[in-house]
Write a structure and sequence with these properties.
30% of the residues lie in helices and 38% in strands. By secondary structure, it is α+β, with helices and mostly antiparallel strands.
């Protein structure tokens, strides 16, 4: 697992872009958008590698004040169902500062594996955006953290 805050390594952005294109296809962020996002001071990200050392997934999130928002989490299709998503989510939540109280994310209603992952970590549906993904609704999830006790 690789983690970074407030800086990006050239090789890592190439891996992230490759995974982004595989997982999100027509909704993939451009290289410029990724580079710009990953250079922001409030951004945390991490990569997960398989047993051979090949990058298989990543997350990108913003963390500021008492809140965090998970922008992206992805695992390449052939490595799904092997625990990499859980490793990424665990690493993301551990990267949140002690003062973080709430985590937000949004997901396609039809993305059942992602919904199961989020709910396994305690995320709860707090809203819905109708037709956010064209003809599909987005579910808004929130996780309340208890980092202060």
């Amino acid at each position: 697992m690789t983690d970074n805050k407030g800086g990006i390594y050239i090789k890592e952005i190439d891996f992230i872009k490759e995974i982004e294109d595989i997982c999100f296809r027509e909704e993939a962020w451009s290289l410029e958008a990724l580079r710009s996002s990953l250079q922001r001071e409030d951004i945390v990200y991490g990569l997960v590698h398989d047993e051979a050392g090949t990058p298989t997934g990543y997350f990108i999130a913003a963390v500021s004040f008492e809140e965090a928002e998970l922008y992206r989490i992805a695992v390449i299709p052939e490595k799904r169902g092997m625990g990499y998503g859980k490793k990424l989510m665990d690493r993301f939540l551990k990267s949140c500062p002690q003062k973080t109280e709430r985590v937000f994310l949004e997901v396609r209603e039809s993305n059942v594996p992602a919904v199961r992952l989020y709910e396994s970590f305690g995320f709860k549906v707090m809203g819905r955006r109708k037709k956010y993904y064209g003809n599909e609704d987005a579910l808004n999830y929130t996780l309340i953290l208890n980092n202060n006790g």
